[in-house]
Design brief:
Elements: E1 3-7, E2 10-14, H1 19-25, E3 35-38, E4 41-43, E5 58-62
Parallel strand pairs: 1-5
Antiparallel strand pairs: 1-2, 3-4, 3-5
Length: 68
């Protein structure tokens, strides 16, 4: 089942059922350092593979940037 979500502000049509599946589909490594929120609610890493996505969810991923 395809659904439209907003991934870092960009509309994405996806067949991903969970946050973890969406992250992988968008090219993220689940072991990498990052934080995720759905509809502005923080989602702990332990819930990424079980947190089900709904039509219209706003998913924000924050990845730390190193350098100076």
């Amino acid at each position: 089942m395809s659904r439209r979500v907003f991934f870092n502000g960009r509309a994405v049509d996806t067949g991903a059922a969970t946050l973890g599946e969406l992250l992988v589909a968008q090219g993220h490594d689940l072991a990498a350092a990052m934080a995720c929120a759905i509809n502005r609610d923080f989602v702990p890493r332990t819930q990424w593979t079980t947190r089900v996505l709904a039509e219209g969810d706003c998913v924000d991923v924050i990845v730390p940037v190193t350098g100076g």
